[in-house]
Specification:
Jelly Rolls; elongated; mainly beta; six-stranded antiparallel sheet; about 575 residues; hydrolase activity, hydrolyzing O-glycosyl compounds; eight-stranded antiparallel sheet
């Protein structure tokens, strides 16, 4: 039992990293798979309580019961219905004071003729800014949606004489604040097991009986203790997994975002591209300020020979809102097609060289860069790809839309990035731009694994000497920046997510690769790359099909992060 408690505590600490960042901002889908106990007078529950009780005490600040059940196999109510292991309840508790808990308006039940203690089941909740829904095994149970006047109006609470504690907040209040998870296996109680219910052998205590309930319960142990069958694990509350899934759609567009499409667009001034003049992408409020001013990343003036960046695109990062250490990540996306588009992961240091040819990425950077600058603190590229449909390398292989790459970047210096030791590729003859695919990562204290559509791609597990030993870096003359940390360093710190669609670059599109119509710029061509790229637009712009389709859009269905 002690070992189990420690394991759960460790799990909850990891999970809280997700909850504290996600529940408040995004509203999640929660899923727990478990097998219930089979015990007399034992109750199990998975529930959520407010982190800060910002609306005062219970139930003003709310309570969400994802699942409650009783362990009695043959407990029946006055109607003859089994209210033990055959019954599951999901409930929302809310009200202005403890004696006006309006839970009965937001309560749902589901029955199983075989009992929920026989097998594992999925208990699910979807929580949005508009409502809370419960399901079991993907079968909808109930949705509770307050009217415009919120739960106060739903409960007709104006007639109670109490003040409305939620009147200055959203209609979902009190369920518009951060909540944390509780798992518990309890026994007895003063109300959950009805006095009127029938159970073989009776019930050894009376609800509301004060502290004598403990005495009465123990004296009746010959009736209930054999039902626990402690020689087996039937009395155990077994949890397979808990998943908190990011529910909201990310909007990732600079100028015209619909349905989570991230689409490149031509830099314009008065409706046409302006090669000269000044381009400033800073907004008028902190929320819309440019976040990467390095190398004219936020403001730039073009000339007749060095044009302004021809292309505007988008990047979304969660550096201030969500970060995690260890877990599983899954992104379902449909990649763009269009010459020189680059969807996926890209190092922020070089972001000012992009905005030339499209590329996309899904990647992770360290929250604090605790081991110093890139790549010493690491970078995780879940997925990178190129948008060219017919980009061919010197071996005759398609390295455009038919190829996705997953990579770890690490090393003691920017000139000693050892990514080639932790790089994997996967090909699809039909192209990753033609359908939706799942890009997956499992990150543990021992290794990092990548998969595509549940098909394992690669696992990178450093030896006991860590990535320093993996890279044979003793011979480089650099100091080991990770020597006092775990073998997974630098991948033993919190990372945040980046999603981006970029264009061009100074390295990602090889000069030697073959593309219909050629490549309009040279890598390392300096700022003249912008000029050359724009002058070659008759080659690449038609491949984007901007006025015909949304093929050039980086489409994201969902991003999910959960604890292992």
């Amino acid at each position: 039992m002690v070992a189990l408690e420690l394991a759960l505590e460790q799990f909850i600490l990891i999970l809280s990293k997700v909850l504290e960042c996600v529940l408040y901002i995004l509203f999640p889908l929660n899923m727990a798979k478990q097998k219930l106990e089979r015990d007399y007078q034992v109750a199990t529950a998975i529930w959520f309580m407010p982190r800060y009780n910002q609306y005062s005490g219970w139930p003003s600040s709310g309570e969400i019961d994802l699942m409650e059940s009783r362990g009695n196999t043959n407990l029946t109510n006055t109607l003859g219905e089994n209210i033990g292991t055959h019954l599951i309840q999901s409930t929302i508790h809310w009200g202005p004071t403890w004696n006006t808990d309006m839970y009965f308006l937001t309560h749902a039940e589901k029955r199983s003729s075989t009992g929920y203690d026989i097998d594992f089941h999925n208990y699910q909740m979807t929580w949005t800014p508009n409502n809370i829904s419960f399901s079991i095994d993907d079968e909808h149970l109930a949705t509770f949606t307050p009217p415009d006047g919120g739960f106060w109006e739903m409960g007709n609470l104006s007639s109670t004489g109490y003040d409305n504690p939620w009147k200055r907040n959203t209609k979902l209040a009190p369920f518009d604040q951060e909540f944390y998870i509780i798992f518990n296996l309890a026994c007895g109680g003063a109300s959950f097991f009805p006095q009127s219910a029938n159970n073989p052998g009776g019930k050894p205590w009376t609800n509301g009986g004060g502290q004598e309930m403990y005495t009465d319960f123990w004296k009746g142990k010959n009736q209930w203790l054999p039902t626990w069958k402690l020689e087996t694990d039937s009395a155990a509350f077994k949890i397979d997994y808990v998943k908190i899934i990011l529910y909201s759609v990310f909007l990732l567009y600079v100028t015209d975002c619909l349905n989570a499409l991230c689409t490149p667009s031509v830099t314009t001034a008065g409706g046409t591209h302006a090669p000269t003049g000044t381009l400033d992408i800073n907004g008028g409020a902190p929320a819309v300020q440019c976040t990467n001013p390095v190398r004219n990343g936020c403001s730039r003036t073009g000339t007749e020979t060095v044009y302004l960046n021809p292309i505007k695109s988008a990047r979304m990062r969660t550096v201030f809102s969500f970060f995690f250490k260890y877990g599983k990540a899954e992104v379902k996306a449909k990649l763009p097609s269009g010459d020189w588009l680059w969807p996926g992961d890209y190092l922020s240091i070089t972001c000012n060289f992009i905005l030339l040819n499209p590329f996309l990425a899904i990647w992770f950077l360290p929250r604090y860069s605790q081991y110093s600058s890139w790549p010493i603190s690491g970078e995780i590229d879940l997925m990178e790809s190129r948008g060219n449909r017919n980009l061919i390398n010197i071996l005759g292989e398609n390295i455009g839309t038919q190829l996705v790459q997953s990579t770890l970047h690490w090393g003691p210096n920017s000139n000693a990035d050892m990514y080639f030791l932790t790089h994997a590729e996967k090909r699809n003859s039909s192209g990753y731009d033609t359908d939706w695919h799942k890009y997956q990562m499992t990150w543990t204290p021992d290794n990092i694994s990548f998969s595509v559509d549940n098909e394992h791609l690669a696992t990178f597990a450093p030896p006991s000497g860590g990535f320093w030993e993996l890279g044979l870096l003793n011979f480089t003359g650099y100091d080991n920046p990770w020597k006092r940390n775990t073998k997974m360093a630098p991948f033993d710190q919190e990372f945040y997510i980046i999603l981006n669609l970029a264009c061009g670059g100074a390295a990602f599109f090889p000069d030697y690769a073959n593309n219909p119509g050629g490549k309009p710029w040279k890598n390392r061509g300096g700022q003249e790359m912008y000029t050359h790229f724009w002058k070659g637009r008759n080659q690449w712009l038609p491949t984007w099909k901007l006025n015909e389709t949304d093929d050039a859009a980086f489409k994201i269905d969902y991003v999910r992060i959960w604890a292992l």
